Amino acid sequence: MRGLVEVDVLVSEVGPRDGLQSVKATMPTKHKFHWISALAEAGLREIEVGSFVPAKLLPQMADVAEVVAYALTLPDLSVTALSPNLRGAQAAFVAGVHKITLPVSVSESHSLANVRKSHAQMIDEVKAVVALRNEQYPAIQIEAGLSTAFGCSIQGVVPEDDVIRLASLMVECGVDEVGLSDTSGMANPSQIRHMFPRLRSEIGVDKTGSAHLHNTYGQGLANVVAALDVGVTTFDSSQGGIGGCPYAPGATGNIVTEDLVFLLESMGLRTGVDIDRLIAAREVLASGLLGEPLYGYVPGAGLHKSFRYAKELV
Amino acid sequence: MRGLVEVDVLVSEVGPRDGLQSVKATMPTKHKFHWISALAEAGLREIEVGSFVPAKLLPQMADVAEVVAYALTLPDLSVTALSPNLRGAQAAFVAGVHKITLPVSVSESHSLANVRKSHAQMIDEVKAVVALRNEQYPAIQIEAGLSTAFGCSIQGVVPEDDVIRLASLMVECGVDEVGLSDTSGMANPSQIRHMFPRLRSEIGVDKTGSAHLHNTYGQGLANVVAALDVGVTTFDSSQGGIGGCPYAPGATGNIVTEDLVFLLESMGLRTGVDIDRLIAAREVLASGLLGEPLYGYVPGAGLHKSFRYAKELV
């Protein structure tokens, strides 16, 4: 049924990946099934369910193939996963995801810290992943997520030209979409308004992917408003804002799905998501990550008397 | 010195009024002096230092006249206070404030709950305040702050026409400015973008006052971005986001000054405020309100490597 409802903005839930890989606790596999199912029930159409990385590096993600297999049984859900390299991409392809995201840092110092690869090495990796996909898994989509696109907590300023150049290179490598990640929450609305139109004019609307924003400095939804102004229609977010940036103590991770959906619907933009069900899914999350702080305002405040879903505003 | 620096946006600090009147604890008078002084040192040019209301209703505000007297000794600071009625306004005038804000609810049910007056009674009160000012205190400014302008937690939807009509009536009554208050944090960016241009075209740029936004649903800075787009240049905010809406458990109060200044400066808009000094003022606040939660992201995360003040971007 969900697939039949048109949306204006795609909210891509990344909590089971970006969130769960950043917290200390490991959510049991069955609990992940329960949570992902509740998220899908709330109307989310795309969920990044995990990361294909060695279990010794991220034990929280050891069950990713099982989680993908489960998520693929849910109707009308686009199942995505992160894969930092060829090996991870291959495992994701075998698991049958609909799409993978390859994290490619614009800042070379971040690239070396995050995936232990130089730009040149990472580009070779992307080419190898695309070649494998083209040969054996032509239906699977590949998105390059450009990390540190709005600033890097190691390098500092990341020039816009570097972002555009790398995006263009990614398209030449054969990826289907290029998204921009504000890895450490350093973006501001003016920067967003300048960057996305350049990206789109460089690589085209069809290849422009999601805005992956973090709320480290509390600027997340402000950046969403700016991104909407310049035509961005896909946003990554995580339920409860789980995650977190190791460089910013006390800061939250991704923008909060609950508050994002509230914002979009209030503005008359259909997301297909039901906020009450989303809050029900949050309870599943909370019960699987005891003691972890969850963020967001809407779940505590509840829907107010003048809130209307976008479809009711038509 | 502060008065010599031009600003693009005026950040009007309301914590000592909207914040302190909403928390359980009462900050000692000397501690208020210390805090207000630290806020002014950080570069804030306008501070709402208290509310002229009966001490038996709000004991936190019993010392408001003393606090005004102290604030008036600080250089280049515009000292404002809230006055819900003629009696309060008279006391504020005698105390020597530069400006008073009269809270006037667009929702009549909120007006009855908040100031125990119907619209007709409140309009009479405004007229009496203006008459007193005109006769005896011609230099003091009067702003009408239209409460529940974007929705009311009692009434629900508040029609835009009602807001514009009341704003116009306030100007006829002789107030100098009309600001719009999102009392319960119910505004959304689309609404903001529609409302402020109508207000300005109805009453003129000179009479359009501040946007007073709350962060109850986490939408505060998103609404700021929208308000900037339609020419709003004064924003009320409170340090640490203190305050809170009794109708929204767990919700914060005003938008957080620290995060607001960070947003504006990042966008190239000069506020005249130094964030490190603002964080120093926050420590003064915290030490005077032990146990009260303070909100905001920037104080915990700190300024990042690519942050630049607007003046450095020129």
Structure description:
The structure is a homodimer of 314-residue chains. Chain A is of the alpha/beta class. Chain A has a single domain, classed as Aldolase class I (TIM Barrel). Helix content of chain A is 42%, strand content 14%. Chain A contains 13 helices and 8 strands. An 8-stranded parallel β-barrel of chain A has the order 1-2-3-4-5-6-7-8, surrounded by 9 helices. In chain A, α2 runs parallel beside α3, α2 runs antiparallel to α11 (275-288) and α8 (189-203) crosses α9 (220-229). In chain A, 55% of the residues are buried. Mean pLDDT of chain A is 93; it is low at 245-251. Chains A and B meet through α8, α9, α10 and α12 of A and α8, α9, α10 and α12 of B.
Structurally, the number of domains of chain A stands at: 1
CATH architecture of chain A: Alpha-Beta Barrel
How many H/I helices of chain A? 13
| Oligomerization category of the chains in this entry | homodimer
CATH superfamily of chain A: Aldolase class I
Kindly state the number of beta strands of chain A.
8
Estimate the mean pLDDT confidence of chain A.
93
Give the overall silhouette of chain A: globular
Structural class of chain A: alpha/beta
Rg estimate of chain A, integer Å: 18 Å
